[in-house]
Design a protein that fits this description.
244 residues; mainly alpha; Helix Hairpins; 75% helix; rod-shaped; binds zinc ion
């Protein structure tokens, strides 16, 4: 292969890798925020159960106060029942006592019901806390992985100028100028492989003569449609693997 063509291919690989790395670095904050959102969802669930438990506590205290009040009335009715003079008075007080007893029973049923619900909520809370702990572990692992990936990409971006200088050191300036013009004007692709007789970038079919010239990889040949510099990939004779 023509050494300049090989250099241009490697320069294209570098530019493609660096622009991917740059996009990955830019995407990092959003990916990290998405991780934090996963935790926030769990924290929100825990807070909701916590609030419900607090409501239950308040309701239970109110019911217990009511029970105490009814019990106070009951004590007074029982004292009154000792002092009744007539049958009518006796029946009236007995009816009040029965009413108060029923009310206490009703309130205590409500308290018991609330306690059962609170037990279930406490179970839910425990489960939600466990789920949060598991999610935290998963998120921390994922965050570390993302940060390492970001650092790797960041390093690639920072090394770009040096890597590029090394690659272009032996490249004649006019070739580099063509490359730079193309990469700016052609969506980051200045050098592209020929696949199935077509320019792999713009898909235009090559004239047979041009195709045969490209196959040799011994010249800098540009696509007649998109102007990109063409080369014939080594693997092109066999079914081509997915481009990287
Ligand atoms: Zn083309």
């Amino acid at each position: 292969m023509l050494p300049d063509l090989e250099r241009l291919i490697r320069l294209q690989e570098l530019e493609t890798a660096v622009s991917q790395a740059r996009r990955a670095v830019e995407a990092f904050p959003a990916r990290r925020d998405a991780l934090e959102a996963r935790l926030a969802e769990h924290t929100g669930r825990i807070e909701a159960v916590d609030r419900k438990l607090a409501e239950h506590k308040t309701a239970r205290r109110a019911l217990e106060k009511e029970v105490a009040a009814v019990q106070g009335r009951l004590t007074r009715f029982k004292e009154q029942s000792m002092a009744v003079k007539t049958n009518k008075e006796y029946h009236a007080v007995q009816s009040e006592i029965a009413g108060a007893d029923a009310e206490i029973q009703r309130l205590e049923d409500l308290i018991l019901e609330g306690m059962l619900e609170a037990d279930e909520l406490a179970d839910d809370l425990e489960k939600a806390r466990q789920a949060l702990a598991e999610e935290e572990a998963a998120v921390n692992e994922e965050r570390t992985r993302l940060e390492q990936e970001r650092d790797r990409h960041q390093g690639q971006v920072e090394r770009h100028a040096g890597d590029r200088a090394a690659l272009v050191a032996d490249l004649p300036p006019p070739h580099l100028a063509t490359f730079d013009t193309l990469i700016r004007g052609r969506k980051g692709i200045a050098v592209g492989a020929v696949r199935d007789g077509r320019c792999g970038s713009c898909q235009v079919r090559l004239r047979p003569q041009l195709y045969n010239e490209v196959r040799l990889n011994e010249g800098l040949i540009q696509c007649e449609s998109c102007q990109r510099i063409l080369y014939f990939p080594a693997e092109a004779d066999s079914p081509s693997p997915a481009p990287r």
